[in-house]
Task: structure prediction
Amino acid sequence: MSLALQIVLLVLVVIFLLAIIHLLRKGKLSLKYSLIWIFSSIILLIMIIFPQLSIQVSKWIGVEVPSNFIFMLEGIFVLVILISLTLIVSNQTSRLTRLTQAVAILERRIRDLEEKTSDSTDSSSTKNSNNDTTDQQ
Result:
């Protein structure tokens, strides 16, 4: 890997890390959701700073070309990110379903109480009108 390519990649990964940190500080990104991005960026930084490491690891696991190892590594990161996002969406869907059910139960209770209140108001007004007619006679 040429020195110019290393510098460009290093700058891009550092900018990406700074963007993640900025989003964390602003509260637009939760720490638990950003850990996978931080972890993958750190691995990329290590591979960029020490290119011989990727060559050695690729030889160790039997990948002939180090660039194929990097693509494989990034493919694994993408799969991990996709799984984590799928888990998040699944969890949020379950929470939304429970919340919707709870709101429906509360709305039903409110309607029942309103009906009960209006029934008792109607019956007391009927008693009052009966008392008025009895008093007039």
Notes: The helical segments are 3-26, 31-49, 51-61, 66-136. The radius of gyration is 32 Å. The CA atoms of residues 123 and 129 lie 10 Å apart. The mean pLDDT is 85.
